């Protein structure tokens, strides 16, 4: 393990971290931290048996009052690294004296994360709700509402930097007595355009406040934040060079643009993918609906996540996915354009764009002339809700496989996308579809501009993964066998017209309007509007073709009437040389059968259609 703990705070004695730390951290129990029994009860309620390594090492430091820069790999439980000691500190402080001011501010780069963090606070304060109050400032609210929320001196405020900053105009002194400041995903906040907000906030926060910066990477942005918010913090760098991507078996398949649709159909319909599947498509909301409608043609249900959905429904979708109400989630990864692209190119990505709360930061910062100063990609994403970023920080639970249906545009984005699986020590699988340049634009209806760079990006991804000892294994499909399914794919693709996609988007918005609490009153007063909205909702999303919902016998493996998940594991995979690779070295989350894990991505041999 590469571990560094340096530059200790001047007023604290150096921390002795013996070499055996990594080892001893494995023996640490939650009870060793001296946490309040109500917190321990909540931890037990989550079924967490012992702290993750970052938790074992970071929690005592934070409880000891040290400022800390914590770097640990995605999915390693960084949120609880700071939340558990934070809650404990609030409880200790309230025991001593009634708290009349806000104790801690947790800054996160996106609204989704703010929501997630607040929910985590609620989970771990379930048995001490009266003693720990937390609020969230991540949406634009009327000044009076913000004022009254802050007037009650909540112990913990979870906020995006721009909302926290805006709240200072309403309640100028609410941060003046802060004891603890957390900047979560600190390698990301600056690239979201929060620089000025953070500068304003730092001026309002007491000097010497205990500051915790967490991140998955230690970038120059983290250094800048460290310089701004904490002098000489302890630095806990737990990211072994090869820890990122650990537990993930990575596959890549090179194929044509229409082949992607063929593959995803086969993988999902024949249940070659088992468990929860997170599919990333490119930076394009329409693309996510197109894929959803396409899959619907085959009776495959999925949900969509994109920046155009209201925040409440995005959060709701992630919650439902986590609860297992559906297994396939299609996400358009729009935020990679801003945060990850810039970061990976080593650019200064802190140019103000639109604020991540949907606020136009160019107006806010008085820099209207974005046309000439903003890179193209940034301008494009500024029309969208900038707080959207699913490949960073969002805790998708128990994702068995991440499918990059469209290759991400950077190696960094790739790492964050695949990091949505194999979280908290679990294992997972990723499959990335890449369009080689000779196959680009060979099937115009399914072509997307970003695929032009797939090959280049793939070589960067491979380099990045190789640097940490990881590899993307090529996935060999028996394309001849798949050809039998091609006509069904074309049928389905034809049904998913632009109009159908537009209607699907409209229908989704209508459903959100119908669900909107804010509009309920209006509907009560204007029932005709409600009726009209409901009536609109009757529109069909796409021409459906019932015959596509079943897989005909002649396309099934020889002798099979029906494919079940367990059958799939034993369907022999045909390699180019005809060798059977059954049961080879899969480490993912497949079902066990006969004591051996079954690779959910195992291919199959099907008979071509009888002539
Ligand atoms: N001690 C633990 N035991 C088991 N699961 C845990 C433990 N701590 C956290 N988890 C779970 O691990 C998952 C990942 O945690 P978290 O989101 O905090 O990771 P992270 O390091 O912040 O990831 P990212 O960098 O992607 O934001 C969550 O579902 C969380 O509930």
TrEMBL record:
Keywords: ATP-binding, Helicase, Hydrolase, Nucleotide-binding, Nucleus, Ribosome biogenesis, RNA-binding
UniProt xrefs under Gene3D superfamilies: P-loop containing nucleotide triphosphate hydrolases
Location, primary (coarse class): nucleus
Enzyme class per UniProt: hydrolase
Catalytic activity: ATP + H2O = ADP + phosphate + H(+)
Compositional bias segments (type: Basic and acidic residues): 1-13, 361-371
Protein's UniProt name: RNA helicase
The organism of origin for this protein: Xylaria flabelliformis
Organismal lineage: Eukaryota, Fungi, Dikarya, Ascomycota, Pezizomycotina
């Amino acid at each position: 393990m590469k571990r560094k703990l340096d530059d200790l705070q001047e007023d604290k004695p150096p921390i002795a971290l013996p070499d055996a730390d990594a080892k001893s951290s494995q023996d640490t129990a939650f009870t060793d931290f001296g946490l309040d029994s109500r917190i321990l009860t909540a931890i037990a309620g989550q079924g967490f048996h012992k702290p993750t390594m970052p938790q074992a090492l970071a929690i005592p430091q934070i409880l000891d009052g040290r400022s800390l820069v914590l770097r640990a790999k995605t999915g390693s439980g960084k949120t609880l690294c700071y939340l558990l000691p934070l809650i404990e500190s609030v409880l200790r402080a309230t025991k001593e004296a009634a708290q009349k001011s806000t104790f801690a501010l947790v800054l996160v780069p996106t609204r989704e994360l703010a929501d997630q963090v607040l929910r985590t606070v609620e989970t771990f304060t379930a048995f001490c709700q009266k003693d720990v109050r937390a609020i969230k400032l991540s949406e634009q609210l009327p000044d009076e509402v913000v004022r009254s929320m802050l007037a009650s001196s909540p112990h913990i405020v979870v906020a995006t930097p721009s909302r926290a900053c805006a709240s200072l105009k309403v309640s100028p002194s609410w941060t003046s007595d802060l004891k603890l400041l957390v900047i979560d995903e600190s390698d990301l906040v600056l690239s979201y355009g929060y620089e000025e907000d953070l500068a304003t906030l730092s001026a309002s926060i007491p000097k010497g406040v205990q500051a915790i910066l967490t991140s998955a990477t230690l970038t120059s942005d983290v250094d800048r934040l460290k310089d701004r918010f904490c002098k000489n913090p302890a630095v806990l760098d737990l990211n072994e060079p090869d820890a990122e991507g650990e537990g993930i078996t990575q596959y890549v398949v090179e194929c044509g643009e229409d082949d992607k649709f063929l593959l995803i159909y086969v993988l999902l319909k024949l249940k070659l993918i088992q468990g929860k599947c997170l599919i990333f498509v490119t930076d394009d909301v329409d693309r996510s609906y197109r894929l959803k409608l396409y899959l619907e043609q085959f009776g495959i249900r999925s949900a969509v996540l994109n920046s155009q959905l209201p925040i409440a429904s995005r959060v709701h979708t992630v919650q439902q996915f986590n609860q297992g109400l559906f297994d396939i989630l299609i996400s358009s990864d729009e935020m990679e354009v801003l945060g990850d692209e810039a970061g990976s190119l080593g650019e200064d990505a802190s140019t103000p764009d639109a604020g991540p709360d949907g606020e136009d930061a160019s107006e806010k910062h008085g820099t209207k002339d974005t046309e000439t100063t903003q890179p193209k990609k940034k301008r494009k994403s500024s029309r969208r809700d900038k707080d959207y970023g699913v490949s960073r920080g969002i805790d998708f639970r128990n994702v068995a496989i991440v499918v990059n249906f469209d290759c991400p545009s950077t190696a960094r984005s790739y790492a964050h996308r695949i990091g949505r699986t194999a979280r908290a020590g679990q294992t997972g699988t990723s499959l990335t579809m890449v369009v080689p340049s000779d196959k680009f634009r060979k099937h115009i209806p399914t072509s997307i501009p970003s695929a032009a760079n797939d090959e280049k990006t793939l070589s960067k991804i491979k380099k990045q993964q190789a640097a940490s000892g990881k590899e993307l294994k090529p996935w060999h499909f028996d394309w001849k066998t798949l050809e039998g399914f091609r006509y069904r794919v074309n049928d389905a693709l034809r049904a998913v017209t632009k109009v159908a996609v537009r209607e699907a988007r409209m229908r989704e918005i209508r459903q959100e309007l119908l669900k909107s609490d804010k509009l309920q009153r209006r509907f009560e007063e204007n029932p005709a509007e409600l009726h009209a909205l409901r009536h609109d909702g009757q529109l069909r999303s796409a021409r459906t073709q019932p015959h596509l919902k079943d897989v005909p016998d002649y396309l099934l493996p020889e002798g099979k009437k029906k494919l079940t998940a367990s059958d799939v594991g034993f369907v022999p995979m045909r390699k180019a040389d005809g060798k059977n690779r059954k049961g080879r070295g899969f480490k993912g989350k497949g079902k066990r059968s006969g004591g051996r894990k079954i690779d959910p991505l195992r291919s199959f041999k099907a008979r071509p259609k009888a002539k």
